[in-house]
Design goal:
The protein has 584 residues and is of the alpha+beta class. It is 30% helix and 17% strand. The chain has a seven-stranded antiparallel β-sheet with strand order 9-4-3-14-13-2-25, with helices on one face. Helix 3 packs parallel to helix 6, helix 12 packs across helix 15 and helix 12 crosses helix 16. It is globular.
Length: 584
């Protein structure tokens, strides 16, 4: 095994980022630099013609149809800006124009993979005591509802950058479905109705109450027709004038004004919004079984998913299948190790050194995996090469996120996770859309025992994110799949489950995303308890993972893998999404 790990390390050299990444990367990964994986005789092999679309999987059928319309007109995968525009209207609890996103794109012609970072940034006026009041941290709900929670939105700017790089249709032609649905109205789905009438305080703010209350004084219910003329006007202006109207224009002024309102006004200004810049970054890719898995770099937590997979390759019990108690115990134990390292070391690599190479070193991952068989409680973080002293993380990360996958007729692909952070973001609105509360994704305690937390707040910094959009390649660098999920801090567990299900347990994507969820982060253990077989529940309990209902955002996995010349797609049954293929 030592020789194999040395071999893998050498093979991976072209795509290993610096041990402590300190700046935005601007290159792309190409087929020439895709790492090669050892062949496993029992792993499923990708077969058939090269993967191509049209294919869309997303959390709402209206958004899927908007994406398919774009693809039918000859648009590219990145032209599916239309999907985000519709999701921000029909699923506003999860994402929107006022939020941020990570997108990883595949170019079938060149094999290039580019990661786009649209994570929000903290205002220039931000101090380490952003969420302190009277010398003590604010209550979490108070922080969310405050203007202090909103960072400069990044989704629109990021999509504009990616669409300029890869789009085929005109930007102005990508917002028609969103404008029509907003102006004419859309039918409120059961899930949205549940959020409108639920207990989330963001749904009860003055702005949300005004939007979600019918003329007769009742709140909107499933089946009602909801119109949003302000949103229709916003997307019409975006279509006509481009992203400049958002960054430095009238929309940016309205965002800053909403943030400045009480209680607890925030420091985000028009200048902060105008200064926002999305980033192209190098994807991080590593072999797993016969495949290669690619993710965005920090501040996304994708590298932690790759660390999990690297440990999984050293854990034979994990291959025993979906009905095996030993496999589920191994799955939970590896999560504890993954989250311990992620929480200690991952942050915005433009501000703090993130030991990427150390965390993904084969010997380090093997040493961490060796701890798993005897791990019956929370794990301590390891000491990967290049890891500076870091304070304990105090980040709370609720869910309010969505994921979609798009493949066009040429085989170009997008895997994108997008969010306003919590349900309906901060509950504040501007021009028909909700504003993010993304800055509450920073650690509320900036230092611990004299050491700064990797995810401490700072002016201009991007908060760490669990969002992990994934592309899956074969060993020649060809696209064979994509997957991702919402779920707050549980995203890593959800995406890992889907990958293990599809690759190790040879399930269909639909079967893999529907598997029971198990999330084990430190002492927190959450699961779809009623779906777990009794022998699996008992085994987990004996291993220090007594199951409790999952208190975090449930999964919303969407993905596909190319098998036998067609897309094997899956949409999470816990949400309202669909996966649609018209590939021929």
């Amino acid at each position: 095994m030592t020789a194999l790990r040395r071999c893998l390390a050498a093979l991976l050299a072209p795509v290993v980022l610096a041990g402590c990444q300190t700046g935005a990367q601007t290159g792309t990964l190409t087929r020439a630099t895709v790492p090669q994986a050892p062949i496993l005789a029992d792993a499923p092999h990708p077969t058939g013609t090269r993967a191509h679309g049209p294919f869309v999987a997303a959390a709402n059928p209206l958004a899927v149809e908007a994406g398919m319309r774009v693809l039918r007109r000859g648009g590219s995968a990145v032209d599916a800006v239309a999907i985000q525009a519709v999701l921000g209207l029909v699923e506003p609890q999860s994402s929107g124009l006022g939020g941020g996103a990570f997108l990883i794109a595949y170019d079938a012609g060149t094999g290039a993979i580019t990661a786009y970072d649209g994570r929000e940034t903290a205002p220039a006026s931000t101090t380490p005591e952003l969420f302190y009041e009277d010398g003590k941290p604010l209550g979490f709900v108070d922080a969310i509802l405050s203007g202090r929670s909103t960072g400069a939105p990044g989704a629109v700017a990021m999509l504009a950058m990616a669409q300029k790089d890869h789009g085929k249709l005109a930007w102005r032609d990508l917002f028609g479905d969103a404008e029509r649905l907003a102006r004419d109205g859309f039918v409120v789905s059961p899930r949205l109705a549940g959020m409108i009438n639920g207990n989330a305080p963001q749904a009860k703010t003055p702005a949300a109450t005004a939007y979600f209350t019918r003329p007769d004084g009742r709140r909107y219910q499933a089946g009602d027709l909801l119109k949003n003329p302000a949103y229709a006007d916003t997307v019409a202006r975006l279509a006509k004038d481009g992203p400049g109207v958002f960054y430095g224009g009238a929309i940016g002024r309205d965002i800053a004004a909403a943030v400045a309102e009480g209680p607890r006004p925030g420091g985000l200004t028009e200048a902060d919004i105008a200064a926002y810049r999305p980033l192209r970054r190098d994807a991080i890719c590593r072999p797993y079984r016969i495949y290669v898995v690619c993710v965005p770099p920090p501040p996304s937590s994708g590298l932690s998913l790759l660390q999990f997979l690297g440990m999984a390759e050293q854990t034979p019990d994990l291959t025993k299948g979906a009905d095996s108690p030993e496999a589920w115990v191994a799955f939970g134990r590896l999560q504890r190790l993954m989250y311990a390292d992620r929480d200690r070391y991952v942050g915005d690599a433009d501000f703090v050194g993130v030991p990427i190479a150390g965390l993904l070193d084969p010997d380090y991952m093997a040493s961490r995996a060796a701890l798993a068989p005897n791990l019956n409680g929370p794990a301590s973080p390891g000491r990967p090469t290049g890891s500076p002293p870091r304070g304990e993380d105090r980040t709370a990360e609720p869910g309010g996120t969505t994921h979609f996958v798009v493949v066009d007729a040429e085989g170009d692909a997008v895997s994108m996770t997008t969010t306003v952070e919590s349900l309906f973001g901060s509950g504040r609105m501007a021009d028909g859309f909700f504003l993010n509360n993304q800055l509450t994704d920073f650690s509320f305690t900036p230092t611990e025992n004299g050491h700064p937390a990797a995810n401490a707040v700072a002016a201009g910094k991007r908060p760490r994110s669990s969002m992990t959009p994934v592309l899956i390649l074969d060993r020649q660098g060809n696209l064979v799949g994509a997957v991702g999920s919402p779920g707050g801090s549980s995203i890593l567990a959800y995406v890992a489950k889907a990958l293990i299900g599809v690759i190790d347990w040879n399930l269909s994507m639909a079967e893999a995303v529907a598997l029971p969820n198990l999330v084990v982060r430190g002492s927190m253990v959450g699961a779809d308890t009623e779906q777990m077989a009794p022998d699996i529940r008992d085994a987990l309990g004996r291993a220090g993972m007594t199951l409790r209902p999952n208190a975090t955002e449930t999964s919303g996995l969407h993905g596909a893998i190319w098998r036998d010349g067609r897309w094997d797609g899956g949409a999470d049954p816990r949400r309202e999404g669909v996966a649609v293929s018209e590939a021929r």
